[in-house]
Amino acid sequence: MEIIVSVDENNGIGKNGELLAHLSPDLKRLKAMTVGNIIVVGRKTYLSFPRRPLPDRENLVLTSHPEQFAEEGDAVKCFSSLNELIAYTQKSEKPVFVLGGAEIYRQLLPYCDKAHITRILSAFDADAFFPDLDNDPEWKKISEGEVITSERYPFRYDEYVRVK
Ligand SMILES: NC(=O)c1ccc[n+]([C@@H]2O[C@H](COP(=O)([O-])OP(=O)(O)OC[C@H]3O[C@@H](n4cnc5c(N)ncnc54)[C@H](OP(=O)(O)O)[C@@H]3O)[C@@H](O)[C@H]2O)c1
Question: Can you give the pTM of this predicted structure?
Answer without folding.
Answer: 0.98
